[in-house]
Amino acid sequence: xxxxxxxxxxxxxxxxxxxxxxxxxxxxxxxxxxxxxxxxxxxxxxxxxxxxxxxxxxxxxxxxxxxxxxxxxxxxxxxxxxxxxxxxxxxxxxxxxxxxxxxxxxxxxxxxxxxxxxxxxxxxxxxxxxxxxxxxxxxxxxxxxxxxxxxxxxxxxxxxxxxxxxxxxxxxxxxxxxxxxxxxxxxxxxxxxxxxxxxxxxxxxxxxxxxxxxxxxxxxxxxxxxxxxxxxxxxxxxxxxxxxxxxxxxxxxxxxxxxxxxxxxxxxxxxxxxxxxxxxxxxxxxxxxxxxxxxxxxxxxxxxxxxxxxxxxxxxxxxxxxxxxxxxxxxxxxxxxxxxxxxxxxxxxxxxxxxxxxxxxxxxxxxxxxxxxxxxxxxxxxxxxxxxxxxxxxxxxxxxxxxxxxxxxxxxxxxxxxxxxxxxxxxxxxxxxxxxxxxxxxxxxxxxxxxxxxxxxxxxxxxxxxxxxxxxxxxxxxxxxxxxxxxxxxxxxxxxxxxxxxxxxxxxxxxxxxxxxxxxxxxxxxxxxxxxxxxxxxxxxxxxxxxxxxxxxxxxxxxxxxx
Length: 563
Known about the structure:
Elements: E1 2-7, E2 27-28, E3 31-32, H1 33-43, E4 48-53, H2 57-65, E5 73-77, H3 83-90, E6 100-104, E7 107-109, H4 113-121, E8 127-132, E9 140-142, E10 147-151, E11 164-174, H5 190-199, E12 204-208, E13 214-216, H6 220-239, E14 249-253, E15 261-267, E16 270-276, H7 287-300, E17 308-312, E18 317-321, H8 328-334, H9 338-355, H10 373-392, H11 403-415, E19 419-422, E20 431-434, E21 437-440, E22 447-450, H12 451-459, H13 468-482, H14 490-517, H15 528-540, H16 548-562
Helix pairs in contact: 9-13, 10-11, 10-14, 11-14, 12-14, 14-15, 15-16
């Protein structure tokens, strides 16, 4: 048996995701659809495969060059798309005198291809089409003897002599003689060929699949459904060996500041969390890549992060350990064991900073590999001015008004930094409490940077608004616990902490302004007064001569809010 995989389509229904990635290279569990189909054909006894290509054909050629299949796999480039039947005729020199299989590259199925081929060999008709009952696409007319009597065109029945309607799966087995019904060198679709075949008195046999999985991934929604169908059961098997999850329930979880979508999956008394980052639109390192790579790194270093069981970085889907619904913010509101929780978290923060930095690959980062001057100026200072002062408060203030002060702030924040792995968003809503133990989430912004920044993020967190004396007590506690690991100059450590507290405060207010005004997440507005007062206090903790314009601006804002 030889086979053709139809892979020349433009994938217009999948735009913008097909602008850089051809549809056959969409993935499930990290494997491309093209690879899955080739391996299935190989297992079915196929001796050689040809793939017609057009859209982003070099990407497909590059992928095939990186693989080592046990059978020959070649491509046939079409400068102009020839259609499904035209592609088959264009490969006439590839076929031998045996029936051959043709399969679409945008389907996912566990139909037994060997069984389909043997079924075709068992009858003497020139074509076998594999059909499936899918109400959304049922348009192939089948009679009581499982012969195809027509195919509906634009919603109109082409033939009334039928028993039922089914869907063509994109899998077919053809005798070489069928090439006579396909014109040379022009666009030709399979539907027209089969109509011509039926009108000539020939019969087209239907192989009707039962109890098999089949889905095409022609739209983003169907692609996502397919990824879930295939990956969710596998994730449960990996997380809970022996778990029989016949039915998986999916419930949406409340998100936070990001655009990611969170779901809790439950089956057989067990649960997992699924996070959807969205389908990849272009090449590069993105949030999902960092989420998976950094998350697994932290877990391997025995830093309390959720275990990642399964992921697919193209579809954006990750399945991970369910840490429950209780975060540090909720625990603080309970008012019990607050200091105890914070001290245990600070000890883990020190561990994360020191051991998380070991073997940390900076290429894993999706933003910047380091917390540096550029990050401070652009992602914190300018963010604060543009998103909070200008967009949220609608003040006629420019970044240039503070540029000298921001440059000084950036230099000071880095001057005495104690660098290690930095989480970058280490606050109470990103620290889950499960069975009394803290776990760290949302680590995808991790990079190399000062532990003082993460400590400031934890202590000045407006979601909990720790009293000042508690913040100072915990700052001292961190220095005491860090000192046995690294030589610490207490005064310099605290100076860096003070400046990092300011930069973090700017970032917080920028984020709250952006989320409230741009994203419409007005929930965050309630924390703006606490964050503004915190910035005013943190600015007062540095030298009087530093940041006069920034101090004056914040004073005016806090005074106007209190009037």
